[in-house]
Description:
This protein is α+β, with helices and mostly antiparallel strands and 596 residues long. The chain is built from 17 helices and 24 strands. Aspartic acid (ASP) binds next to strand 23 and strand 24.
Amino acid sequence: MRTHHCNELRKAHVGQTATLVGWVNTKRDHHGVIFIxxxxxxxxxxxxxxxxxxxxxxxxSHTLRHEDVVLxxxxxxxxxxxxxxxxxxxxxxxxxxxxxxxxxxxxNRSEVLPFQLDKELSNxxxxxxxxxxxxxxxxMARNLKIRHQVAKAxxxxxxxxxxxxxxxxxxxxxTPEGARDFLVPSRLNPGRFYAxxxxxxxxxxxxxxxxxxxxxxxxxxxxxxxxxxxxxxxFTQVDIEAxxxxxxxxxxxxxxxxxxxxxxxxxTDIGGPFPRLTYxxxxxxxxxxxxxxxxxxxxxxxxxxxxxxxxxVFSGALASGGVVKAINAKGFAxxxxxxxxxxxxxxxxxxxxxxxxxxxxxGEWKSPIVKFFSEAERAALTEAMDIEEGDLVLxxxxxxxxxxxxxxxxxxxxxxYLDATAGNEELEFLWVTDFPLLALDEETGKWNAxxxxxxxPKEEDLPLLEAGDKLGxxxxxxxxxxxxxxxxxxxxxxxxxxxxxxxMFAALGIDETQAKEEFGHILDAFSFGAPPHGGLALxxxxxxxxxxxxxxxxxxxxxxxxxxxxxxxxxxxxEVDFKQLRELYIKSTRDEKKPE
Length: 596
Ligand code: ASP
């Protein structure tokens, strides 16, 4: 329908005839002359309607409203000077020209929109209800384009590295990734259910047994989680698996892949290889397994300072095998009481009894605990924490895991108050390696896989799997890639031997019968010459979010659910007809009392 798109006409086109098609972005009436900006996905071009050119078209242009779809034909003209003033608009790429219209067709009319497209809207529900309108905004159009570019960069890069894309079933069997499954009843097999994949984990491993050697997929995954912060029940992963590879090779591949994504979407060079920290170091220094490295404020160990202290909260924690650590929030002595209260709440929420702190103001240490410190302790603390005027030092004492976790959260919260990353354009990538293989669920007393049950223990820790009492010490051959405090991907080298997999299941409390029932196919597969293999999955939505500079993955998903898991546009999930349920052999118990 068009000769040019709306971001194409330049001075060089002056004198030519052009036809544009698009939406009425803005309309202005200057003494009876109508100016509209016609918008398509590429940009906007101004069209001007004067009765000299075509009286009927000029007349019709008066009836135009925002978001009407129009087809405008005219001749391209330079923007004139009026009263010695240039009318060039430097804010748009087509700002040196305008289309002097001699024909107008109104292709389709638009009702008045439920919200204006040129204003930021804080009510996300309205945006989601009319997502097709929300996506017309240039920012959202840009996000969709970035998403496409990143997907294409992944495909191109992996293809060049010899990987082939293989699709795996969406109607599949439960695979444990730590969340609840979405279930689909099978009409043809009454009483049986498919599970939607939480990840294609088992299929990609089976593809290695099948000899594919290098697999990838931009895969949709489904996890029925309580929707915390920024999660979606369905999300996308760049899923990768390869045979005969080491952890180093997988990490190298992913560094190259990420470099390609940032280069193609933003033109940015991210460098590499990325620094690496073991899980233990990451927790010790940053109190997080996905540390934000754009600022310091590291956790400092103070065992040597307080081992013999009069202050029993500290020396007692150390005596019972715990730790004392602190962070120095430099320049934050002016913390308000409200902020301290909130920080204390955070500490308590994550297992601390309270939050001891010292404010350094007017040359004085303001804190109820310093009266217990000896001169030597004060001196040693000053040195260890580099304490200066204006600082706020915050302490944690107790068992290692709790203290690290608590101070890690406090560190992030202080960074938030201090705007520590404001204006910081840096991309701080890192690998976190050597995660624990298993974690004890305190409530049930059972061991769970930290990643998933197919993750390989580190070779030197293999004997511990049988020792039984040291399960918590086993490290996994696993790695997470982190960017600016976000985990953007994770993976591992896998178990490929049936015997070892059975041992792993045993450690997880899955006996042989249950293992056969649930994972018989994978144990069978491992008995037919399974190659050593490993891989990783990148959280595609989060990656695109970070590349696009957005704060929520919903901004980079065309049709996301809201934080209650609802698609407001189509009003799904929806009730279904009783007959449909009967065909599926399903009866709703919604109105019955929930089992205790
Ligand atoms: N399947 C894992 C996940 O979804 C990733 C992997 O181990 O490759 O987190």
